[in-house]
Write a structure and sequence with these properties.
The protein is α/β, with parallel strands linked by helices. It is 32% helix and 20% strand. It has 11 helices and 9 strands. Strands 5-6-7-3-8-9 form a 6-stranded mixed β-sheet, with helices on both faces. A 3-stranded antiparallel β-sheet has the order 2-1-4. Helix 5 crosses helix 6 (177-189) and helix 6 (177-189) runs parallel beside helix 7. It is globular, with a radius of gyration of 19 Å.
Amino acid sequence: MRPLAVSEPTSLRSATESEPRVNDRPNRDALPGIEHDPNAALSIHDLTVAYDRRPVLWDVDLDIPTGVLAAIVGPNGAGKSTLIKACLNLIPSVSGVVTIFGQPWKQARRRTAYVPQRETVDWSFPVSVLDVVMMGTYGRLGWLRPVGRSQKAQAMRALEHVELADLAHRQISQLSGGQQQRVFLARALVQQADLYLMDEPFASVDAATEQAIVRVLRTLKSEGRTVVVVHHDLQTVPEYFDHVVLLNMRIVAAGPTDEVFTHDNLRATYGGRLTLLEQAATALQHLGGPQGG
């Protein structure tokens, strides 16, 4: 079965299936220092990402605890999607160390699932809903082994969770945008990951799809999974998430939603970006390190 075509070659292939585009740098193999929680689901130390020497993320330090629903929130261009992609080695970084459950991504990738933005996918590819969901089994099954009855049953159960079982044999191109997003979520579910990284799963979906996604996220949390979501709707953050990361190229604040999601922190996150960007750009020129692409 051929994978669905995407505008980025790896954006549909899950974090458990894809090889990194760049080689792991030596300083990404272990997390130095003792300031990070060794039990965190995701730890990021001194992560900097730049495009054409223009910083997108600068000196990011962050721990995401195990078993939380975490939102990454910030203005457009703050580096939210870049942060997730850098953690999965889908884009190169200037510096930094990322560990997942205390291990480098290469060792922990089978414990990680990635849901990319829906807009990155060429939905005209002729494949059924069930086929797309079964792609999520490839990481554990292996690309050369045929999909069997067990994998099909797993895929159908995942479609039931997202309320799309009746559309299993429909062509993916025939679904609405919200339905396509739910298919991506089902595809992640069959990976049976411990850490889920989702890039704007609520973008441009209807109310029914949004509530279906929320129910799935809460089920994952109840099972002890960790979910990190790039999110834009500030009004729903306190309702949907128990942990929040406020990002504007650097971490402004991170922690339990009821402690961190405050007016002062939001004002700091959504204001002053130009000052931060100019400071980081100047420092990056002095750094003279590798250039992100």
